């Protein structure tokens, strides 16, 4: 635990500010929660690697003064896997969007869950492709309007928590940008967990999602998270089962972590044969 006062300037590349996110975007709140979690853990900048793909959310890697990589669309997790295997002592964190993680990167996502490699994946779910024109994503949901679905999306959306659980992630959680302190504490738990951690953070996009779906500006979208999400097991679910649950759904410390399994394989079998 860090006992020093939080100083954001320690963690950012100030020359790249002001940042490029639209007014009201939730990604800045996620970045703030991430930095406060890192500060709480007392991690030094060189202890951390942040890897991202392509999208509004993926700009985070460029803004932060850690060991960072801005990779190809959908390929953040393979890059992060290589970094983690090369240096298992690093805390490797992958902040990316719902499209980057579950569409073009969906195959990598499920196999990272299956391997249980010690990486923290933060999925900023704004239910839209924000940077590239407002196309719908696998998280948009039926009826949502987007530039590629002007009359409404015909597809059901993924439930990211269930997807991560089913694929084998050993830490799975969900929170929102409205619950910023909760997000900070959840990210902290995820980083501390030894295994593949998935934190879904519901994050608003007023520019693309909000306008097309008449969801209002950022304050109204924040209110929606307040009114339509509840802690796990809330009694309110009995009256309204459509409420979205927040919390830690999986925290399994018994599964073997992938880097450990790989090292055991190399030392116990490969090197002994050599």
UniProtKB/TrEMBL annotation:
BP-aspect Gene Ontology terms: cellular respiration; small molecule metabolic process
Span of domain Thiamine pyrophosphate enzyme TPP-binding: 54-201
Keywords attached to this entry: Oxidoreductase
CDD domains in alphabetical order: TPP_OGFOR
Keyword Oxidoreductase: yes
InterPro entries: 2-oxoacid:Fd_oxidoreductase, THDP-binding, TPP_enzyme_TPP-bd
One example GO MF annotation: thiamine pyrophosphate binding
Claim: Oxidoreductase is one of the keywords in the record: yes
PANTHER family (alphabetical): 2-OXOGLUTARATE OXIDOREDUCTASE SUBUNIT KORB-RELATED, 2-OXOGLUTARATE SYNTHASE SUBUNIT KORB
Protein name: 2-oxoacid:ferredoxin oxidoreductase subunit beta
